[in-house]
Design a protein that fits this description.
There is one protein chain. The chain is built from 8 helices and 3 strands. With 151 residues, it is mainly α. A 3-stranded antiparallel β-sheet has the order 1-3-2. A hairpin with a 6-residue loop joins strand 2 and strand 3. Helix 1 packs across helix 3, helix 4 runs antiparallel to helix 8 and helix 5 runs antiparallel to helix 6. It is globular and about 45 Å long.
Length: 151
């Protein structure tokens, strides 16, 4: 059974057309799902963040409305864009790597099967170096992305 965060995410994705952006009322969503507005904030922050290819625009005093913007890149620039973001961080957690992978799957740069293979390759179990796995993970993931760019 899906948890409420999953349900909210799926609802937002289901009402999103092919448009680049979607305007939502935080309060209306909270009321619809019978949750506190902070639950909506949590879903937006964790499921619709930059790593996953989204930007949240919110204006102070905007009546609780937010605009979600889907970063759409052509296939030629998606991998370099992720690589650039990756180069801007010092280490990479498994969860953040999964966000990047989900973004590449959504942009159809990789298949879900390829995404699963990459997740297995950069998991803590595969890396077997818990203390340093975030740094190693970043390096391994970076090399995978470079390999994808070459194909």
């Amino acid at each position: 059974m899906a948890n409420i965060s999953d349900e909210i995410e799926q609802f937002i994705l289901s009402i999103w057309n092919d448009d680049e952006s979607l305007r939502l009322s935080r309060n209306d969503l909270a009321q619809y799902f019978s949750v506190a507005p902070s639950q909506i904030n949590y879903v937006l922050a964790t499921r619709f963040n930059l790593d996953k290819g989204y930007v949240i625009e919110s204006k102070r005093g905007g009546g609780g409305f937010i605009t979600l913007v889907r970063i759409s890149e052509d296939k030629e620039s998606a991998l370099p864009s992720v690589l650039q973001e990756l180069d801007g961080i010092s280490s990479l957690s498994f969860n953040r790597a999964c966000n990047f992978i989900q973004r590449l799957e959504r942009e159809e740069i990789i298949t879900s099967a390829e995404g699963d293979i990459i997740k297995n390759a950069i998991s803590d179990k595969a890396l077997n170096f818990p203390a340093h796995s975030a740094n190693i993970r970043k390096n391994v993931f970076r090399e995978i992305l470079i390999g994808l760019m070459r194909r």
